[in-house]
Design a protein that fits this description.
This protein has 426 residues and is mainly α. The chain has 18 helices and 6 strands. Strands 1-2-3 form a 3-stranded antiparallel beta sheet. It binds carboxymethyl coenzyme *A.
Protein backbone atom coordinates (compact mmCIF):
# COMPACT_ATOMS: atom_id res chain seq x y z
CA UNK A 1 0.00 0.00 0.00
CA UNK A 2 1.59 3.26 -1.16
CA UNK A 3 2.31 6.00 1.35
CA UNK A 4 -0.29 8.76 0.84
CA UNK A 5 2.34 11.46 0.98
CA UNK A 6 4.34 10.07 -1.90
CA UNK A 7 4.43 9.88 -5.66
CA UNK A 8 4.67 6.56 -7.50
CA UNK A 9 6.39 6.54 -10.86
CA UNK A 10 6.17 3.59 -13.20
CA UNK A 11 8.79 2.89 -15.86
CA UNK A 12 6.57 1.63 -18.68
CA UNK A 13 9.54 -0.04 -20.35
CA UNK A 14 9.99 -2.48 -17.46
CA UNK A 15 6.71 -2.16 -15.58
CA UNK A 16 8.66 -1.40 -12.38
CA UNK A 17 7.24 1.19 -9.98
CA UNK A 18 9.17 3.42 -7.61
CA UNK A 19 7.86 5.49 -4.74
CA UNK A 20 9.19 8.94 -3.84
CA UNK A 21 8.35 10.85 -0.69
CA UNK A 22 6.66 14.21 -0.81
CA UNK A 23 8.17 16.79 1.53
CA UNK A 24 5.72 19.43 2.71
CA UNK A 25 6.88 23.04 3.03
CA UNK A 26 5.71 25.63 5.57
CA UNK A 27 4.32 27.55 2.57
CA UNK A 28 4.05 26.94 -1.17
CA UNK A 29 4.32 23.85 -3.32
CA UNK A 30 5.29 20.49 -1.85
CA UNK A 31 8.41 18.84 -3.22
CA UNK A 32 9.08 15.28 -4.40
CA UNK A 33 12.41 13.95 -3.11
CA UNK A 34 13.93 12.31 -6.19
CA UNK A 35 17.49 11.95 -4.85
CA UNK A 36 17.48 8.18 -5.56
CA UNK A 37 15.68 8.44 -8.92
CA UNK A 38 18.79 7.79 -11.05
CA UNK A 39 19.90 4.91 -8.82
CA UNK A 40 16.41 3.37 -9.03
CA UNK A 41 15.70 3.87 -12.71
CA UNK A 42 18.95 4.73 -14.52
CA UNK A 43 17.14 7.83 -15.84
CA UNK A 44 17.82 11.54 -15.40
CA UNK A 45 15.13 14.22 -15.21
CA UNK A 46 15.27 16.95 -17.88
CA UNK A 47 13.99 20.34 -16.69
CA UNK A 48 15.31 23.15 -18.88
CA UNK A 49 15.59 26.39 -16.92
CA UNK A 50 14.58 24.61 -13.66
CA UNK A 51 10.89 25.37 -14.19
CA UNK A 52 9.83 22.45 -11.95
CA UNK A 53 12.95 21.82 -9.90
CA UNK A 54 13.73 22.97 -6.36
CA UNK A 55 17.51 23.18 -6.11
CA UNK A 56 17.76 23.58 -2.33
CA UNK A 57 15.91 23.89 0.98
CA UNK A 58 15.70 27.46 2.24
CA UNK A 59 14.26 29.47 5.12
CA UNK A 60 15.03 32.93 3.75
CA UNK A 61 12.59 34.17 1.12
CA UNK A 62 9.13 33.07 0.05
CA UNK A 63 7.38 34.06 -3.18
CA UNK A 64 3.81 33.21 -4.13
CA UNK A 65 3.82 34.14 -7.81
CA UNK A 66 0.08 33.61 -8.31
CA UNK A 67 -0.84 35.96 -5.44
CA UNK A 68 2.01 38.45 -6.02
CA UNK A 69 3.41 37.83 -2.53
CA UNK A 70 7.02 38.22 -1.40
CA UNK A 71 8.38 37.76 2.14
CA UNK A 72 11.87 37.88 3.64
CA UNK A 73 12.14 35.64 6.71
CA UNK A 74 8.36 35.83 7.17
CA UNK A 75 8.00 39.63 6.82
CA UNK A 76 5.89 40.92 3.96
CA UNK A 77 7.87 43.03 1.48
CA UNK A 78 5.45 45.98 1.71
CA UNK A 79 6.01 46.17 5.49
CA UNK A 80 9.80 46.12 5.06
CA UNK A 81 9.79 48.59 2.16
CA UNK A 82 7.48 51.12 3.79
CA UNK A 83 8.23 50.78 7.54
CA UNK A 84 11.84 49.58 7.68
CA UNK A 85 15.13 50.62 6.10
CA UNK A 86 17.48 48.70 3.84
CA UNK A 87 19.97 48.41 6.71
CA UNK A 88 17.21 46.81 8.86
CA UNK A 89 16.45 44.44 5.98
CA UNK A 90 20.13 43.51 5.57
CA UNK A 91 20.26 42.78 9.32
CA UNK A 92 17.14 40.62 9.00
CA UNK A 93 18.65 38.60 6.14
CA UNK A 94 22.02 38.19 7.84
CA UNK A 95 21.00 37.64 11.48
CA UNK A 96 17.51 36.15 10.87
CA UNK A 97 15.86 38.96 12.92
CA UNK A 98 15.05 42.64 12.62
CA UNK A 99 17.42 44.70 14.77
CA UNK A 100 16.54 46.34 18.08
CA UNK A 101 17.48 50.05 18.26
CA UNK A 102 20.83 49.18 19.88
CA UNK A 103 21.54 46.44 17.32
CA UNK A 104 20.66 48.81 14.48
CA UNK A 105 23.05 51.50 15.78
CA UNK A 106 25.85 48.95 16.21
CA UNK A 107 25.25 47.45 12.73
CA UNK A 108 25.20 50.90 11.08
CA UNK A 109 28.42 51.86 12.83
CA UNK A 110 30.14 48.67 11.70
CA UNK A 111 29.04 49.23 8.10
CA UNK A 112 30.34 52.81 8.25
CA UNK A 113 33.69 51.80 9.71
CA UNK A 114 34.20 49.20 7.00
CA UNK A 115 33.04 51.33 4.06
CA UNK A 116 36.53 52.47 3.00
CA UNK A 117 38.53 50.30 0.63
CA UNK A 118 42.27 49.63 0.68
CA UNK A 119 44.08 52.45 -1.15
CA UNK A 120 45.93 49.82 -3.19
CA UNK A 121 42.64 48.92 -4.87
CA UNK A 122 42.75 52.25 -6.70
CA UNK A 123 45.54 50.84 -8.89
CA UNK A 124 43.13 48.13 -9.99
CA UNK A 125 40.57 50.74 -11.06
CA UNK A 126 43.30 52.69 -12.87
CA UNK A 127 44.04 49.67 -15.05
CA UNK A 128 40.61 49.63 -16.70
CA UNK A 129 40.10 51.51 -19.96
CA UNK A 130 37.84 54.58 -20.12
CA UNK A 131 34.18 53.70 -20.61
CA UNK A 132 34.62 50.20 -19.15
CA UNK A 133 31.21 49.03 -17.99
CA UNK A 134 30.89 49.52 -14.18
CA UNK A 135 29.48 45.96 -13.82
CA UNK A 136 32.71 44.54 -15.30
CA UNK A 137 34.82 46.69 -12.96
CA UNK A 138 32.62 45.78 -9.98
CA UNK A 139 32.86 42.01 -10.48
CA UNK A 140 36.66 42.21 -10.92
CA UNK A 141 37.05 44.46 -7.86
CA UNK A 142 34.91 42.20 -5.64
CA UNK A 143 36.90 39.18 -6.74
CA UNK A 144 40.10 41.11 -5.89
CA UNK A 145 38.87 41.93 -2.34
CA UNK A 146 40.38 38.75 -0.90
CA UNK A 147 43.83 39.80 -2.14
CA UNK A 148 43.62 43.04 -0.13
CA UNK A 149 42.02 41.69 3.04
CA UNK A 150 43.94 38.69 4.28
CA UNK A 151 42.21 38.37 7.63
CA UNK A 152 38.91 36.59 8.06
CA UNK A 153 39.49 34.23 5.16
CA UNK A 154 38.65 30.98 6.94
CA UNK A 155 35.40 30.15 5.21
CA UNK A 156 34.61 27.38 7.70
CA UNK A 157 34.58 29.68 10.73
CA UNK A 158 31.16 31.32 11.34
CA UNK A 159 32.84 34.18 13.20
CA UNK A 160 35.07 34.88 10.22
CA UNK A 161 32.45 34.57 7.50
CA UNK A 162 30.11 36.90 9.41
CA UNK A 163 32.96 39.45 9.39
CA UNK A 164 33.35 38.92 5.64
CA UNK A 165 29.61 39.39 5.20
CA UNK A 166 29.61 42.79 6.92
CA UNK A 167 32.76 43.81 5.06
CA UNK A 168 31.27 43.08 1.68
CA UNK A 169 27.93 44.82 2.41
CA UNK A 170 29.87 47.88 3.60
CA UNK A 171 32.39 48.02 0.77
CA UNK A 172 30.21 47.23 -2.25
CA UNK A 173 28.70 50.77 -2.40
CA UNK A 174 32.17 52.34 -2.28
CA UNK A 175 33.49 49.98 -4.96
CA UNK A 176 30.35 50.61 -7.03
CA UNK A 177 30.76 54.39 -6.77
CA UNK A 178 34.49 54.15 -7.59
CA UNK A 179 33.63 51.96 -10.64
CA UNK A 180 31.36 54.69 -11.92
CA UNK A 181 33.73 57.59 -11.18
CA UNK A 182 36.66 55.82 -12.86
CA UNK A 183 34.57 54.79 -15.87
CA UNK A 184 33.73 58.48 -16.42
CA UNK A 185 37.14 59.92 -15.50
CA UNK A 186 35.61 61.74 -12.50
CA UNK A 187 37.49 62.37 -9.22
CA UNK A 188 36.68 59.69 -6.71
CA UNK A 189 34.70 60.58 -3.62
CA UNK A 190 35.35 58.77 -0.35
CA UNK A 191 32.49 57.69 1.95
CA UNK A 192 31.27 60.45 4.27
CA UNK A 193 30.88 59.08 7.79
CA UNK A 194 28.26 61.70 8.66
CA UNK A 195 25.85 60.26 6.14
CA UNK A 196 23.64 57.19 6.35
CA UNK A 197 24.19 54.05 4.22
CA UNK A 198 21.93 54.94 1.28
CA UNK A 199 22.49 58.70 1.46
CA UNK A 200 26.22 58.04 1.21
CA UNK A 201 25.79 56.19 -2.08
CA UNK A 202 24.00 59.11 -3.73
CA UNK A 203 26.67 61.39 -2.28
CA UNK A 204 29.57 59.31 -3.66
CA UNK A 205 27.93 59.21 -7.09
CA UNK A 206 27.05 62.90 -7.29
CA UNK A 207 29.48 65.02 -5.26
CA UNK A 208 32.76 66.69 -6.19
CA UNK A 209 35.72 67.06 -3.80
CA UNK A 210 35.10 69.69 -1.08
CA UNK A 211 31.60 70.05 -2.38
CA UNK A 212 28.58 70.09 -0.07
CA UNK A 213 25.46 68.58 -1.53
CA UNK A 214 22.00 68.42 -0.03
CA UNK A 215 19.93 65.36 -0.77
CA UNK A 216 16.15 65.39 -0.57
CA UNK A 217 14.68 62.84 1.87
CA UNK A 218 12.43 61.46 -0.92
CA UNK A 219 15.52 60.77 -3.07
CA UNK A 220 17.15 58.80 -0.26
CA UNK A 221 13.85 57.03 0.49
CA UNK A 222 13.39 56.09 -3.18
CA UNK A 223 16.86 54.53 -3.45
CA UNK A 224 16.56 52.85 -0.05
CA UNK A 225 13.25 51.30 -1.16
CA UNK A 226 14.84 50.06 -4.40
CA UNK A 227 17.56 48.36 -2.30
CA UNK A 228 15.05 46.75 0.06
CA UNK A 229 12.94 45.45 -2.83
CA UNK A 230 16.02 43.88 -4.43
CA UNK A 231 17.53 42.43 -1.24
CA UNK A 232 16.62 38.82 -1.96
CA UNK A 233 14.45 36.87 -4.39
CA UNK A 234 14.91 33.18 -3.60
CA UNK A 235 16.59 30.96 -6.21
CA UNK A 236 16.87 33.27 -9.23
CA UNK A 237 19.75 32.92 -11.75
CA UNK A 238 22.33 34.99 -9.85
CA UNK A 239 21.48 33.49 -6.43
CA UNK A 240 21.67 30.02 -7.92
CA UNK A 241 25.10 31.01 -9.27
CA UNK A 242 26.19 32.18 -5.80
CA UNK A 243 24.98 28.90 -4.25
CA UNK A 244 26.67 26.85 -6.97
CA UNK A 245 30.00 28.58 -6.31
CA UNK A 246 29.43 28.19 -2.54
CA UNK A 247 28.91 24.45 -3.09
CA UNK A 248 32.52 24.13 -4.29
CA UNK A 249 33.67 25.74 -1.00
CA UNK A 250 35.03 28.78 -2.81
CA UNK A 251 35.46 32.05 -0.95
CA UNK A 252 32.32 34.22 -0.55
CA UNK A 253 33.98 37.09 -2.47
CA UNK A 254 34.39 34.69 -5.42
CA UNK A 255 30.74 33.64 -5.10
CA UNK A 256 29.51 37.26 -5.00
CA UNK A 257 31.68 38.18 -7.98
CA UNK A 258 30.14 35.27 -9.95
CA UNK A 259 26.67 36.42 -8.84
CA UNK A 260 27.41 39.90 -10.22
CA UNK A 261 28.33 38.42 -13.62
CA UNK A 262 25.15 36.32 -13.69
CA UNK A 263 23.02 39.32 -12.77
CA UNK A 264 24.38 41.47 -15.59
CA UNK A 265 22.35 39.84 -18.39
CA UNK A 266 19.33 41.67 -19.79
CA UNK A 267 16.93 38.88 -18.82
CA UNK A 268 17.90 39.46 -15.17
CA UNK A 269 19.49 42.53 -13.52
CA UNK A 270 20.45 44.12 -16.82
CA UNK A 271 16.75 44.56 -17.63
CA UNK A 272 16.40 47.97 -15.92
CA UNK A 273 19.10 49.42 -18.21
CA UNK A 274 17.40 47.80 -21.21
CA UNK A 275 13.99 49.21 -20.17
CA UNK A 276 15.29 52.77 -20.41
CA UNK A 277 17.18 52.09 -23.67
CA UNK A 278 13.99 50.62 -25.10
CA UNK A 279 11.80 53.53 -23.95
CA UNK A 280 14.32 55.93 -25.52
CA UNK A 281 14.24 53.90 -28.74
CA UNK A 282 10.42 53.89 -28.87
CA UNK A 283 10.71 57.62 -28.26
CA UNK A 284 7.10 58.71 -28.64
CA UNK A 285 3.64 57.44 -27.70
CA UNK A 286 2.72 57.29 -31.36
CA UNK A 287 5.24 54.45 -31.83
CA UNK A 288 4.01 52.30 -28.94
CA UNK A 289 1.44 50.26 -30.90
CA UNK A 290 4.09 49.28 -33.46
CA UNK A 291 6.44 47.96 -30.73
CA UNK A 292 3.64 46.12 -28.92
CA UNK A 293 2.91 44.36 -32.23
CA UNK A 294 6.61 43.47 -32.57
CA UNK A 295 6.64 42.03 -29.01
CA UNK A 296 3.66 39.81 -29.92
CA UNK A 297 5.10 38.64 -33.23
CA UNK A 298 6.47 35.08 -32.90
CA UNK A 299 8.89 35.72 -35.77
CA UNK A 300 10.37 38.82 -34.15
CA UNK A 301 12.87 38.40 -31.27
CA UNK A 302 11.82 41.80 -29.83
CA UNK A 303 10.56 41.58 -26.23
CA UNK A 304 9.06 44.29 -24.08
CA UNK A 305 11.72 44.85 -21.44
CA UNK A 306 10.39 45.17 -17.90
CA UNK A 307 7.50 42.79 -18.66
CA UNK A 308 7.09 39.19 -17.55
CA UNK A 309 8.61 37.11 -14.80
CA UNK A 310 9.32 33.42 -14.31
CA UNK A 311 7.54 33.33 -10.96
CA UNK A 312 5.10 36.29 -10.84
CA UNK A 313 2.19 35.48 -13.13
CA UNK A 314 -0.26 37.93 -11.56
CA UNK A 315 1.65 41.02 -10.54
CA UNK A 316 5.07 41.80 -9.12
CA UNK A 317 4.51 43.25 -5.61
CA UNK A 318 7.82 45.09 -5.89
CA UNK A 319 6.57 46.90 -8.99
CA UNK A 320 3.43 48.10 -7.16
CA UNK A 321 5.53 49.62 -4.35
CA UNK A 322 7.91 51.29 -6.81
CA UNK A 323 5.06 52.75 -8.84
CA UNK A 324 3.93 54.52 -5.67
CA UNK A 325 7.47 55.77 -4.93
CA UNK A 326 7.73 57.03 -8.51
CA UNK A 327 4.58 59.13 -7.97
CA UNK A 328 6.03 60.61 -4.75
CA UNK A 329 9.37 61.34 -6.41
CA UNK A 330 7.69 63.01 -9.40
CA UNK A 331 6.31 65.70 -7.07
CA UNK A 332 9.82 66.79 -6.09
CA UNK A 333 12.14 65.88 -8.94
CA UNK A 334 11.80 66.17 -12.67
CA UNK A 335 11.19 62.79 -14.26
CA UNK A 336 11.57 62.66 -18.02
CA UNK A 337 7.93 63.28 -18.97
CA UNK A 338 8.32 62.00 -22.53
CA UNK A 339 9.61 58.62 -21.26
CA UNK A 340 6.90 58.48 -18.59
CA UNK A 341 4.28 59.04 -21.27
CA UNK A 342 5.71 56.21 -23.39
CA UNK A 343 5.96 53.92 -20.32
CA UNK A 344 2.37 54.69 -19.27
CA UNK A 345 1.07 54.00 -22.76
CA UNK A 346 2.90 50.64 -22.95
CA UNK A 347 1.54 49.68 -19.54
CA UNK A 348 -2.01 50.70 -20.45
CA UNK A 349 -2.04 48.75 -23.72
CA UNK A 350 -0.24 45.65 -22.42
CA UNK A 351 -2.45 45.31 -19.35
CA UNK A 352 -5.52 45.04 -21.59
CA UNK A 353 -4.03 42.97 -24.39
CA UNK A 354 -4.96 39.27 -24.70
CA UNK A 355 -1.36 38.26 -25.56
CA UNK A 356 0.00 39.67 -22.29
CA UNK A 357 -3.00 38.62 -20.15
CA UNK A 358 -2.94 34.99 -21.38
CA UNK A 359 0.77 34.64 -20.62
CA UNK A 360 0.61 36.45 -17.28
CA UNK A 361 2.99 39.18 -18.47
CA UNK A 362 2.84 42.15 -16.11
CA UNK A 363 5.24 45.04 -15.51
CA UNK A 364 8.06 43.81 -13.28
CA UNK A 365 10.28 45.74 -10.85
CA UNK A 366 12.62 46.83 -13.65
CA UNK A 367 9.86 48.58 -15.54
CA UNK A 368 9.68 51.18 -12.75
CA UNK A 369 13.16 51.13 -11.19
CA UNK A 370 14.86 52.47 -14.35
CA UNK A 371 12.67 55.58 -14.43
CA UNK A 372 13.25 56.24 -10.73
CA UNK A 373 17.02 55.83 -11.07
CA UNK A 374 16.97 58.17 -14.05
CA UNK A 375 15.10 60.76 -11.97
CA UNK A 376 17.78 60.37 -9.28
CA UNK A 377 20.38 61.35 -11.87
CA UNK A 378 21.97 57.89 -11.87
CA UNK A 379 23.30 56.96 -15.32
CA UNK A 380 21.95 53.91 -17.15
CA UNK A 381 25.13 51.85 -16.94
CA UNK A 382 24.85 51.99 -13.14
CA UNK A 383 21.35 50.49 -12.89
CA UNK A 384 22.50 46.88 -12.64
CA UNK A 385 25.17 48.01 -10.16
CA UNK A 386 22.42 49.51 -7.99
CA UNK A 387 20.61 46.15 -8.19
CA UNK A 388 23.84 44.47 -6.96
CA UNK A 389 24.13 46.78 -3.92
CA UNK A 390 20.59 45.79 -2.95
CA UNK A 391 21.05 42.07 -3.65
CA UNK A 392 24.32 41.53 -1.75
CA UNK A 393 22.71 40.86 1.70
CA UNK A 394 20.49 38.22 0.05
CA UNK A 395 23.40 36.54 -1.72
CA UNK A 396 25.40 36.51 1.50
CA UNK A 397 22.46 35.10 3.47
CA UNK A 398 22.09 32.34 0.85
CA UNK A 399 25.85 31.63 0.97
CA UNK A 400 25.65 31.34 4.77
CA UNK A 401 22.55 29.14 4.60
CA UNK A 402 24.35 26.76 2.25
CA UNK A 403 27.36 26.74 4.58
CA UNK A 404 25.20 25.95 7.61
CA UNK A 405 23.47 22.96 6.04
CA UNK A 406 25.31 19.87 7.27
CA UNK A 407 24.53 17.91 4.09
CA UNK A 408 25.31 20.58 1.46
CA UNK A 409 26.36 18.79 -1.73
CA UNK A 410 28.37 20.18 -4.63
CA UNK A 411 26.02 21.37 -7.40
CA UNK A 412 26.53 18.97 -10.27
CA UNK A 413 23.59 18.72 -12.70
CA UNK A 414 23.46 15.97 -15.33
CA UNK A 415 22.59 16.29 -19.02
CA UNK A 416 20.79 14.76 -21.97
CA UNK A 417 23.68 14.12 -24.36
CA UNK A 418 22.73 14.62 -28.00
CA UNK A 419 26.20 14.90 -29.52
CA UNK A 420 27.88 12.40 -31.82
CA UNK A 421 28.46 8.82 -30.72
CA UNK A 422 32.08 7.75 -30.66
CA UNK A 423 33.88 8.52 -33.91
CA UNK A 424 36.58 6.02 -34.75
CA UNK A 425 39.56 7.90 -36.26
CA UNK A 426 40.47 6.51 -39.67
N1 LIG B 1 7.64 40.50 -24.15
C1 LIG B 1 6.94 39.73 -25.03
N2 LIG B 1 6.66 38.42 -24.83
C2 LIG B 1 7.15 37.86 -23.72
C3 LIG B 1 7.89 38.59 -22.77
C4 LIG B 1 8.13 39.96 -23.01
N3 LIG B 1 8.82 40.69 -22.14
N4 LIG B 1 8.24 37.77 -21.75
C5 LIG B 1 7.76 36.56 -22.05
N5 LIG B 1 7.09 36.61 -23.25
C6 LIG B 1 6.33 35.50 -23.88
C7 LIG B 1 7.26 34.49 -24.53
O1 LIG B 1 7.51 34.80 -25.88
C8 LIG B 1 6.49 33.21 -24.36
O2 LIG B 1 5.47 33.19 -25.31
P1 LIG B 1 4.94 31.75 -25.93
O3 LIG B 1 4.37 30.99 -24.78
O4 LIG B 1 3.93 32.12 -26.97
O5 LIG B 1 6.17 31.08 -26.51
C9 LIG B 1 5.79 33.37 -22.99
O6 LIG B 1 5.66 34.80 -22.82
C10 LIG B 1 6.59 32.79 -21.82
O7 LIG B 1 7.90 33.35 -21.87
P2 LIG B 1 9.22 32.60 -21.36
O8 LIG B 1 10.41 33.25 -21.97
O9 LIG B 1 9.04 31.12 -21.54
O10 LIG B 1 9.16 32.92 -19.80
P3 LIG B 1 10.34 32.78 -18.77
O11 LIG B 1 9.71 32.57 -17.45
O12 LIG B 1 11.33 31.78 -19.25
O13 LIG B 1 11.06 34.23 -18.85
C11 LIG B 1 11.63 36.48 -18.41
C12 LIG B 1 10.90 35.23 -17.90
C13 LIG B 1 11.66 37.53 -17.30
C14 LIG B 1 13.09 36.12 -18.79
C15 LIG B 1 10.88 37.02 -19.65
O14 LIG B 1 9.55 37.36 -19.29
C16 LIG B 1 11.59 38.22 -20.28
O15 LIG B 1 12.48 38.05 -21.11
N6 LIG B 1 11.19 39.50 -19.89
C17 LIG B 1 11.87 40.68 -20.35
C18 LIG B 1 13.15 40.89 -19.54
C19 LIG B 1 12.87 41.40 -18.14
O16 LIG B 1 12.08 42.32 -17.94
N7 LIG B 1 13.58 40.81 -17.16
C20 LIG B 1 13.51 41.23 -15.76
C21 LIG B 1 12.88 40.19 -14.89
S1 LIG B 1 12.50 40.87 -13.26
C22 LIG B 1 14.04 41.20 -12.56
C23 LIG B 1 14.72 39.98 -12.08
O17 LIG B 1 14.18 39.33 -11.17
O18 LIG B 1 15.81 39.71 -12.57
Amino acid sequence: MANKNSVTMTDNRTGKSFEYNIIDPTLGASVVDIATFYKDTGLFMLDRGFTSTASCRSRITYIDGSKGKLMYRGYDISYLATQKSFVDTAHLLLYKKLPTNEERDAFKLELKKRSFVHEGMKKLFDAFPDNAHPMAILSAAVSALSTFYFDHLDIDSPEEYMEMAKRIIAKIPTIAAFSYRYSRGLPIIYPNLDRGFTENILYMLRAYPHDHIDLKPIEVKALDTIFTLHADHEQNASTTTVRTVASTHAHPYAAISAGICALWGRSHGGANESVISQLEMIGDVKNVEKYIAKAKDKNDPFRLMGFGHRVYKNFDPRATILKDIREQLMKERAIDSKLIEVANKIEEIALHDEYFIERGLYPNIDFYSGLILRALGIPKEMYAVIFVIGRVPGWIAQWIEFKEQPDGKIARPRQLYLGPTEIKPE
